[in-house]
């Protein structure tokens, strides 16, 4: 759904008076400048504040405010009354209703599915490879990255995405029953979004939570729904965030690896007109704050997940949970079916173009990753 | 050797007039401010400009200048007449002769060996794990990271290091003869610095270039010395940088993995007094520019190394070179001897303290890395 009409004039009021700043530093004096004010929406609301991922927007806003001495203020819209899904955020940033939005690529329109290559592809890149991919330019002189260009040149979106958060490798999720073979997935009801969910739905006969009568399950109800066996499995992020959700208290089997999301990344989407009106130094500050936050959150995930994993191993010792690797059969079929799904979407020319570029990038960088592995 | 006396007054002239800035943004007006001017030395001189690693200082200086609209200028000292080794840079930044320096941890004094934990330990962390380690704080509320604290609290250095560049995993290097067993290393003369070099010297009976009559080989002479068989092997970085050096033209065997440097990282060392005199927003800008550069260079290394690896595979096909994995025997002995070397250095209490913290961190994060690997 669209944002409320009252938000529609932020760009004009916020950015219009900023032109003076571009005249630059003159022996250290900036005179007659008004602060620039932006609003940001987030796909994560207050009920997500215990997760590491939730922090990115505030970190970026704080950093930008500090670095500009309050000259560039981005305020996060904390209005929880509206449910704003990720595709709404994309559209509202694109049409200028709001200057920027924190979002993951969980879209419904088929034509936006290509954007998953900037977020999470099953059996895709490792986090380190993903970072290289997100910053990859076809021509080193390009201002925009390959992925950033797709938004405007192929999808007519008036949006520039900046990588702003990364979870690192995820887990396969919590199951209240064992899944030893592909057949064991049949009939399971599972909370899982994205292309991984599509693979499970199309080829493993899993019912996704969004198909259930109540629709997609809100974050704070996932544990309850699993406990009551309304769903049989749920994937969220990894050891740290999953603990925050309490999933270890309501299901016994914690599967790995999270083949559907080996390196999920999240962006701040920025309206291109608002961006172009920013003084150059504020553009740099914003970009730099985003990439710094991306790197810091990935590091925090790795550190905190590794600590929680130790706790999981203790819980396994006392028999409370079980940590189980997906069988080779499951992983092999999942890989094959992922390829089928991506080939299916390649009937769309843009999807094919990006898939081809990504595949070629993946082959080369995986060769390198494997070679220098000790 | 120390820097020239004429550089000793940079801090007083550069930072003294900056106090006005800390009074902050007042409806967008900063009045009566003078630019802050710093100098930076780099351990890499002009003869290194074709390597990716060389770029970090200029990227950071450019970024800081842009983000502050020229309010904070850091100039790189390009005086190539002086050979400034990494330990000189450490000392000169610590005693305030210069505000900052770009450096790798290639030190000679035993008491500084502990700082290798912030740079490169043989069989150490992967690049992704290393990033988490560099940002790791014992207490989340600490201002400084664990590694940053070691400099002042344990070594009495008036220095704060900021991670600013990463090569990613390195290669084992170019050899003009085959090394199938540990015995084959005996008598080899090799260009290799750091703890990896110490392992080879102490336990593999390798002669290091720095022990040769002419001393450590300057960068631009490595290929020639290898060609003339004055040395039999040389490790530099990885596919891209090694190509720049032309090593593929003078040696046949390219060994991997680079067990001595699985994730080498480089810092900008900053004098603490100069740092504390910076306005807070300039501190943030500097920090953020460093971490952004770190992430970008690692991504660039991964992408360009993966492209050069394809070229290496073509050269292998036509018989020009051979890509060879170190034998399991070599890797196992090297791992064991690395542990011995680190235990040896642990007779120093500070080294032991950091080694213990690092080892515990490594066990946990490696468990997590392995678990979520697909």
From TrEMBL, chains A, B:
Leader peptide range in chain numbering: none
Entry annotated with the keyword Signal: yes
BP-aspect Gene Ontology terms: transmembrane transport
Name listed for the protein in its UniProt record: ABC transporter substrate-binding protein
Keyword terms: Signal
Regions crossing the membrane: none
């Amino acid at each position: 759904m669209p944002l409320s009409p009252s938000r529609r004039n932020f760009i004009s009021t916020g950015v219009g008076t900023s032109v003076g700043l571009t005249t630059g530093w003159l022996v250290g004096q900036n005179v007659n400048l008004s602060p620039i004010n932006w609003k940001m929406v987030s796909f994560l609301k207050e009920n997500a504040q215990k997760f590491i991922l939730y922090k990115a927007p505030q970190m970026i806003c704080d950093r930008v405010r500090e670095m500009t001495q309050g000259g560039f203020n981005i305020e996060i819209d904390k209005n929880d009354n509206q449910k704003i899904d990720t595709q709404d955020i994309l559209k509202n940033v694109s049409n200028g209703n709001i200057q920027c939005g924190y979002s993951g690529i969980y879209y419904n329109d088929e034509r936006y599915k290509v954007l998953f290559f900037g977020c999470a592809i099953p059996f895709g890149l490792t986090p380190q490879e993903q970072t290289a991919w997100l910053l990859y330019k076809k021509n080193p002189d390009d201002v925009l990255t390959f992925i950033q260009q797709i938004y405007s040149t192929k999808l007519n979106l008036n949006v520039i995405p900046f990588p702003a958060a990364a979870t690192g490798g995820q887990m396969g999720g919590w199951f209240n029953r064992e899944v030893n073979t592909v057949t064991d997935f049949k009939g399971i009801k599972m909370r899982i979004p994205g292309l991984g969910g599509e693979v499970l739905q199309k080829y493993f006969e899993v019912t996704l939570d969004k198909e259930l009568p109540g629709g997609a399950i809100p974050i704070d109800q996932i544990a309850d729904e699993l406990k009551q066996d309304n769903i049989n499995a749920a994937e969220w992020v990894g050891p740290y965030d999953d603990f925050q959700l309490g999933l270890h208290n309501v299901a016994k089997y914690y599967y790995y690896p999270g083949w559907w999301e080996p390196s999920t990344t999240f962006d701040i989407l920025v309206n291109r007109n608002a961006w172009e009106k920013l003084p150059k130094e504020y553009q740099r500050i914003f970009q730099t704050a985003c990439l710094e936050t991306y790197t810091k959150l990935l590091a925090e995930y790795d550190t905190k997940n590794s600590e929680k994993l130790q706790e999981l191993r203790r819980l396994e010792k006392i028999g409370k949970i079980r940590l189980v690797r997906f069988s080779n059969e499951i992983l092999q079929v999942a890989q094959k079916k992922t390829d089928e799904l991506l080939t299916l979407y390649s009937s769309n020319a843009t999807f094919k173009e990006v898939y081809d570029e990504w595949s070629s990038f993946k082959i080369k960088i995986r060769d390198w990753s494997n070679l220098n592995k000790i």
